[in-house]
Design a protein that fits this description.
The structure is a single chain. Helix 1 crosses helix 4. The protein has a single domain, classed as Rossmann fold, CATH 3.40.50. It contains nine helices and eight strands. It has 245 residues and is an alpha/beta fold.
């Protein structure tokens, strides 16, 4: 296993469409990587890159970048993209809390967040990729009208996200509590399944999806939500209903 990981690390580093913490490409992805002006779409926490590759195959008029911290996972998608001569796909190892240092304002058209760690402990909420802490960063790099697509099996994370959006006065464009039983769900949401999606469905989990924009997002509302959430968390602790989770 260790030898396989080392092999994947080395190959990932040598691929022409893979990058490590490419801060120097901020504002230059169109010119230096994709060589076109097509919209850029990110998949955050892309894992093996199933969604990144599948979306790129279906949308040749867009550029896709899968981002994760583990290159041995992304190697799977990077290898598939290379073998299929896909010029609209890239992968990058990066830290999510520095995403605004990797892309210029308005450089990104769309973001996908697929099956991220739900961080169910309340005190760990700030690590959730849909938390206001990250929405602030996404707003900096998204162009006006840019959308965020969020897909998860976690009831807790989905409820948190919907509650947060309500506090932010953001009305989602789509809210689906069970993608695979909804006859009107977009085909891509049903047909493309990540490793984790299949795993969770096998455990009887329902797959949820929402899409929203950040055009009405404000830092004042974000701060108000964070203060409210912390107050509610401390109430649970004080009542003995929580140990701070």
């Amino acid at each position: 296993m260790a030898k396989q990981k080392l092999k994947r690390f080395a190959e990932f580093a040598d691929y022409p469409h893979t990058f490590d913490f490419a801060y120097e490409l901020q504002g230059k992805w169109h010119q230096e990587v994709f060589k076109n002006n097509n919209p850029i779409v990110l998949e955050l926490g892309c894992g093996k890159g199933e969604y990144t590759v599948a979306l790129a195959q279906e949308n040749l008029d867009k550029n896709f970048i899968g981002i994760d911290i583990k290159s041995n996972r992304m190697w799977v998608g990077a290898k598939k993209a290379l073998e299929n001569n896909m010029n609209n796909v890239a992968f990058m190892r990066a830290l999510m809390h520095r995403i605004n240092e990797l892309f210029a304002p308005g450089e990104v058209a769309e973001i996908w967040i697929t099956f991220p760690d739900p961080f169910v402990r309340h005190r760990s909420a700030k690590h959730r990729l849909t938390h206001t802490r990250f929405l602030r960063l996404y707003q900096q790099i998204l162009k006006p009208g840019g959308v965020i697509n969020f897909k998860t099996d976690s009831d807790e994370l989905f409820a948190f996200t919907q509650n947060m959006l309500q506090h932010l006065s953001i009305t989602p464009e789509v809210v689906d509590y069970n993608v695979h039983t909804n006859p009107n769900a977009e085909p891509m949401l049903k047909n493309v399944r990540t490793y984790y999606e299949n795993l969770f469905m096998g455990r009887g989990k329902t797959i949820k999806f929402t899409r929203f924009k950040l055009d009405d997002f404000t830092t004042d509302k974000a701060k108000a939500f964070e203060d409210w959430f912390e107050t509610e968390r401390l109430k649970l602790v004080a009542a003995g209903k929580s140990t701070g989770i």
